[in-house]
Amino acid sequence: MSRDVDGITQISTDELKAIITNQAKEPIIIDVREVDEYEDGHLPGVPLIPMNVIPTMVDQLDQSKSYLLICRSGRRSQNTALYMKEQGFANVRNYEGGMLDWDGELTFGQEWIVKDPKELDT
Fold first, then answer.
1. Region 16-33: what's the mean pLDDT?
2. For 45, which of 20, 84, 98, 113 is 20 to 30 Å away at the CA?
3. What sequence ranges are listed for the domain Rhodanese (predicted)?
């Protein structure tokens, strides 16, 4: 069951698995870890925008869409979600347990490192 921390909805592993299984266009799932962490294992099909790059791209992200952020433990993604909320994003969620809690399928390497936020509209 989801809970709220500082105005950000926290998503559990089971909820994340359900979102992935449904293959809906939203929420847009974004990994906010560093490139080397992403290469070492990430959720299949999930793009990477490192936390420190988000501020340079935030103006190009669609505020009307919903986002779900992932990191190693849930801390960086929570901070990034708070930042996005401050920038006017109404629907940003956090994967609370991060990759430390993920027990599903992984993909390795540089599958999808976002260079242009318009890539997320595909």
1. 93
2. 84
3. 23-108
